[in-house]
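User: Hey, quick favor. My workstation is busy. Could you predict this chain's structure for me?
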Amino acid sequence: VSGSATYTLDVSLPGMLHAAILRCPHAHAEVRKVDAARASKMPGIVAVLTAGDEGTAIPWYDEADKGAQSRLFDPHCRYAGEEVAAVAAETPYEAADALGAISVEYQERPFIVGLDAAAGPEAPAVYEGGNLVREPSRYQRGDVAKGFAEADVVLEETYRTSTQIHSPMEVHGSVAQWEGDQLTVWDTTQSIFDVQKGLARALKLPLSRVRVISRYMGGGFGSKIGANKHTVIAALLARRTGRPVKLVLPREDTFKAVGNRPAATMRLKAGVKKDGTLTALEMTARGEVGAYASWADVTYLVSDLYLCPNVRTEDASVYTNAGQERAFRAPGFPQCAWALEQTIDALALKIGMDPIALRLRNIPAVSQLRKGMPYTSTGLARCLEEGARAFGWEAAKARLQGERATGPTRGTVVRGVGVAACQWGYEGEPVGSAIARLDADGSLTLTFGAADIGTGTKTVMAMVAAEELGIPVEKVRIEHADSGTCPYAVASGGSQTVLVNAPAVRNAAIEVRRQLLEMASEQLKVPVAGLVLVGGEVVNGADAKTKVAIPDLQRLRQQQSVLGVGTRHPHPAGKIPLPFGAHFAEVEVDTRTGELRVLRLLGAHDSGRPMNPLTYQNQVFGGMTMGLGFALTEQRVMDGQTGRVLTCNLHDYKLPTAVDVPPEMTCVPIDPHDSECNTVGAKGLGEPATIPTAAAIANAVFDATGVRVMDTPMNPTRLAELLAARTKQAGN
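Assistant: No problem, here it is.
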């Protein structure tokens, strides 16, 4: 560790100003007047930006069938945290001080807090048309009524998940600099090209006049895809002042204005036969999008994870006076898994079947949602079986059964184990490009546009190129995430970074390899087909003594470099490449206090070939930790009286810490090298590593206590109340 990485927040340019944003304190209000005269005269203040200034009437929150719902600085503020004005100053402290000197006259309006309140008949309307964003999304196959009639057991329950905040380690920020009519922005983004397009559209510039750079990133989880308002504001202030401007959001603002995993309410009905055959599944769900149109659909897993002939789902997205939801590591999937995987366990208990056996009984070979399209590979059964063996499922069940038979051995503390399965439903975009340049000394420069968001993308791409060219990975230098110098790349999100970009990198390296072998063939007088690249040398496969080091290739010395351009091939025709996984948990619950400890977690994943075992393991551990937070501690809390977010810091918003992570975490890669998916055999991993964790923990809690927890988070207060209610009911 050298500390030499330059993150966006580390960028410092000569003459750079610092900006800050004034946000609306009300959940719903009209801005009547903004007076920035006093602020503009304060020490160090160089510029103030408000809705009345030239160039600020920029449409925002576009909805396809509605048009723009707002503007960069809109006089109609629909949540506490909307942008009202901005300042640029010589120091960040002077900028922050000036915000307090801006006088704003508001007219408050009625507001809504929470998903349930928004659905009520007397709820205030966020928009004149009501609080339903659009007509619900519906899906159906088979005859659901018939399926329930055929079932031996039918269960129906309502599950709720709370709003989760992305909370990456690195906060959001941008540095903007103009050189003539050329804009350069250093941004904390997962997608430089989405930011480039957003800035070009907002500022009415050609793409060639906007350069976006993101060398290093401290996580995003979906909240850093696309151009945020603060990025455009930084660019406007830089243009007005003629100086570079840095705008870094305080941590508090990231809890309000840059997205969240939306709260969901899910009513799930499920039917099963005594032999474990699922006969019908029906889910009706509502999700909270916040104040601006988006999608909060959650029902995907109900439609496709398990073999079931009769399925009906309905997703409704609802407005509230809160910040807009945003894609968050497996959007909609952890919510659905929370409901579906607990229901599967409940069905297994009712028919006296092991929960793993019930899942294995209902694994599909094709995607039912895609009308029977086969998977390129499906390792869900192996995830369940090999994961169970590695976890010691049977032994753990026997151990716990024995403890329960002999009576309490830990006082009021009980233990249980649980399992949950998942699929991630996005195969990635088939667009990827890379450029490989091998220089005369045998070193390689690899250029691609994808951002490394802290997941080891650069290392994996270097390994792919080095493997193909037979050179040490240390000889590969990476240039990436710069729209001015790199080829186009899709966003680093959706578990698509490796499976989209690695094949392009490999193809670029293959082109370099082809040229090197042709050069060596001429020099060694050996046919190309008989040559191999290994250890930085071109070797005759039939006579290892006949060889030449790459730097000693005569034609390479003459032309000084070899260039290879690679693109990613299309998706396989008629097949769908999706990853699968299963998580296992053991927990300990104090039935007196409700205190819950996760003792161990195991994740078994079918994500194709593990490209780098270390980063593969880190992805799984990070995903499980995020799922643990979703299950136990994380919840955006809003004040019903003011509509403000109360959990705006890392003290009140409870992210899991090192002491919350279980002492035993295990990663079990299931490696069906998926050559049909792409030329490197890899599938996605980042999203599925989060999806089933919360449900596995909830199932373990039920195994330990006999209490089914329907709502997140499972904090001690909620658990203690449920346990007390069960005791009271048993006493009656």
